[in-house]
Amino acid sequence: MEPPNDAAVSKRTMEVVVALLFLLIAGIVIADSQRLGSGWGTDGPQSGYFPFYIALVMSGASLFNLYRALFRGEGADVPFVGASALRKVVTVLVPLLIYVASIGWVGIYAASAVYLALFMWHFGSYALWKSGLGGAAFALALFCLFERWFLVPLPKGPLEAWLGY
Known about the structure:
By secondary structure, the protein is mainly α. It has two domains: about 5-75; about 85-160, no CATH class. It is built from six helices and four strands, in the order E-H-E-E-H-E-H-H-H-H. The protein has a two-stranded antiparallel ribbon with strand order 1-4. It has a two-stranded antiparallel ribbon with strand order 2-3. The mean pLDDT is about 90.
């Protein structure tokens, strides 16, 4: 259990942030639905009809939650996450974001091999050679599964091009 003064973010702050994010997403959907046409055409609903009304409901719910978070005053003193727990989340989230961003440049197989190897080494405390072997075996298994057996091409990088794929 974390000490009470270890709070990094309050519950109220997170409720405001999530309500604003959902409101932003709803606004984007509403704008795009207007671009597509959100009315009723001669042959039925236009492409943006249902997304428009779903986004309206979503924005209404977001505004309600935002109002509750700002004006009811509850959760200001309730910790959402402690600093030590937040550090643990960040140590997993940052490498994940780097992995996802690197897929476009090095391909999914090489990125997956490096990602898994580093996680095995850092979090699993495996020897570096075992981690590298595990990451390479996993990437090879993914390659066989998707490229050979399912015939589903996934993003490839320079390594696969060098190997002729």
